[in-house]
Every structure is written in C-alpha cells, then in structure tokens.
Request: fold
Amino acid sequence: MKEYWLRWVAFCGEKEPPLAVALVRISIGCTLFFTCASPYFAGVWSAIWVDQSHGGIRNYRNIPWFLELLGGATPEAVESLLWIGMGSAMCLIIGLFGRLAALLGMIVMNTIAWHNTMATGGHDDLIANILWLLVFVPNDITLSLRSKLQTGSWLSETPILSIIRRLLLVQLLIMYGSTGLQKVSVHWVPFGQLDALWYILQQPTWGWRDHAFLAPYFFWTQLGTLGTWLFELGAPLLGILMLLEHGTTRWYRPTWGQRIVAIIRPRILFAVIGIPMHIGILLTIDVGPFSYAALSVYWTLWYRPLTISTTESVEKFPDETS
Reply:
C-alpha cells in the first residue's frame, strides 16, 4: 500500500515545461473573446441579457451576483460585463495577469450562462471549467508578455505542475463520455437507424447551409454518426490508455500490457479522430464556440516531459517483484 501511495504522490507532484498549458491559455482566451465579442458587435447583447424593464426582451427574477454588483441587468452593467470578459480574454491571449484573467473570465462565463438559460449551452460551462482550472497554475509563464517583461524573452522553460494539464484533459474526457451516454437512442447507437447526423445537418437552426446535396451520401452520414458516438463513448477508455502509456516511462517499470499501449499511441489516436471531427462540426453546423473550446484542450495531448533518468525512476519506485 505504501508503494502505491508513493507512486500516487510522485504522479501528482510531477512537473513539466509550461508550453502546453500556455497554448491552452491562448486558445481559450481567443474562445472567450469570441463568446463575448460576437454578440456585442452584432448588436444583440442587449436583447439577450438586458432586463425587460431596461429595454431587453426577458423579465428576470434572479440576477447573478456579479451582474448585481455591476448594477443589475441594465444596459450599462451588461456592457461592462462583456467588456470585462473581452479584457480578460486579451490578458490571457497576450499572457498578462494570467490567473486573475482566468478567474474573471470564469465569473463572466458563469454569469452569462446563468443569467439567460435560453441563450446558453454546455459550451459555456466547458469554457468556464477550463478557465477555472487555469486559475490554479501560473499559466502565463511562457508565450507571454509577463515572460518578456521579467526575463526579456517570450519563452520560458520554468516547470509547472503537470496535474492541471491532466485535469484539463480529464475535463475533456468526461465531457465526451457523458455526451456519448446521453446519445443512447435509436438515432445514434449501432443496429439503430444511425440518422442523427443526417437530421442535424438538415435542420436550419443547426446547419450553416442547405445540406440536401448529401441525399445520395446518407450511408456516409451514418458512418459519421456511428464514429462520433463510438469516439465519445470510448474517450474515457483512451484516457486510461494514456495513463498507462505515461507509466511506461515515468513512475514505474512497464509491464507487457503497457508496452503494447506505447505502440498504440493513444494520444495520437485521440487527436487523429477528435480534431477532424471538430473541424467537420465547424464547417457544417453552428454550435456556438463549442468546438473552439474543446479544441483548446487538445494542446494537453502535446507535451514534452522533463528529462528523467529511467534508472532513477525504477529505483525510486521498484516493481513489486524486484
């Protein structure tokens, strides 16, 4: 038991270069800016979030605390809220006050999501969750204005704890897995009709354009439906394989099963399936910033571990048969 506890402590205490988290910071910063700026510059923000008594279209009984702090559901308060969100996004993009910017961005996203549930979606919660995790790590160590001001270079190799990058990936795996479980219907599962993607593409509220031209290719939309469902449902399993792959070189002597996992390269497999899927979503249907937020986390698949002696690692955490 002590050996496994030591392994767990070592796993949680591992450090790595900050590049992957910095790329997540920049990407989710762009996503946050898009989420706040698109309704603002389109001129629809007042209709969505301003109270009816101040010229909006909805009558709210409960105002979120942060919006109440800004003055209520008034045009001035809502506009200030969106500018705080855009300002936080810019700080994340350039890499300045990274933790504070992530915290303010998370509060803005939660305020937007909870204020009008008729104009929100799961992607808002996903963005808020990513930003919340970035609060617990110095996310602006590299690729940042902070690094430039402190060291004279935009890049830094100062290591950070690996646990936040891993939790970001776990967030993505949970999202995919739960989404797959919610799609257990005749339209999604094998031996069913597998026509979910077809109907989604034909709905004017979802599609970017008329997809009637896909009529001769219904079979291919069925394959897309099945592939999407299997990937989402199998994402947690790929996460377990990634953990086993990590164990082959870092914190204990690899077994034959882990050597096989290292050959499979689950990280690459995950990216090869997931990235094209989200690009396809972006090109065909409008689901808001969902794909932007999800793709922001894919940077966690690409990381370079700190150099460690394999001999030292095995000696520190010997195999049970040693």
